[in-house]
Amino acid sequence: MSRPTSGKSTSGKSHSLRGHVALVTGSTRGIGLAIARALAAKGCDLVLTGRDHSALRRVSRELASTKSKILPHPCDLRDPQSIDDLFRAIRQKFKRLDILVNNAGIAHANLTVDKLPLPLWKDVLETNLTGMFLVTQAALAIMKRGGTIVNNLSIAATRVFVGSAAYAASKHGALGFTNTLREELRPQGIRVIALLPGATNTAIWNTFWPQAPRKKMMSPATVAQAVVNAIVLSPNATVETLEILPTAGTL
């Protein structure tokens, strides 16, 4: 009887990702941290990135208690040189990448278009869209058939919210990028998943709606579990769009 490839079960049952290497951007908090924890629990070796050096050290110490190999490396997705440095470190330690989770992203204060400063617009687009492009481009050089790319886009990729023009533009653009990438990579056997979580209880709400009803939101761990379930599907199947919403509905 043939064995499942890449450690993936054709029966759909939960299994180990031991020996796989995953990069999670923005992995020091929120959904990124929850995904990193969930992947570590499956035995995945991890590359952790973020701009907050102290938070990166803290998370690295936490996950080092697992059997996974951990490579913490600060990275600013707005800086192509910083991304080059990150992938140089990945090649030196692991030589390849099996899973990429483009999770890093920022929001902005609730501002209508007429009051939105150009520097803020640029910062959001450079982080949420251009950064995703640059990291993906670098990852493809060391990712082989059977790899998986997960782009955390937010439900804002398909909806609009007054006062969030830059954020919405970055997420709508990232969805177009993700859908195009998926078609380009089908012949190479690399799966591309668009992750569209609804309201999730993370720190990002402090930026544009500090009084948001957190009790109605999903936990980051809930979103992370859905992501891992999608990653471990049989190689001949894929979740193309993973939309996960709170049962409470609209906040």
Describe the structure.
Strands 3-2-1-4-5-6-7 form a seven-stranded parallel β-sheet, with helices on both faces. The chain has one domain (15-244): 3-Layer(aba) Sandwich (Rossmann fold), CATH 3.40.50.720. The radius of gyration is 17 Å and the shape is globular. It contains seven helices and seven strands. Mean pLDDT is 91; it is low at 1-14. Helix 3 runs parallel beside helix 4 (118-140) and helix 4 (118-140) packs parallel to helix 5. The chain has helices at 30-41, 53-63, 80-93, 118-140, 165-185, 205-208, 220-231; strands spanning 21-24, 45-48, 70-72, 99-102, 148-152, 191-197, 241-244. By secondary structure, the protein is α/β, with parallel strands linked by helices. The longest helix has 23 residues, at 118-140.
Return the CATH topology.
Answer: Rossmann fold
* Shape by Cα distribution: globular
Uncertain regions spanning at least 5 consecutive residues: 1-14
**Would you tell me the structural class of the helices and strands?**
alpha/beta
SSE sequence, one letter per element: EHEHEHEHEHEHHE
Q: Total number of β-strand segments?
A: 7
Task: Tell me the fraction of residues in β-strands, as a range.
Answer: 5-15%
Helix coverage percent? 25-40%
Key phrases:
251 residues, alpha/beta, Rossmann fold, seven-stranded parallel sheet, 7 helices, 12% strand, globular, disordered N terminus
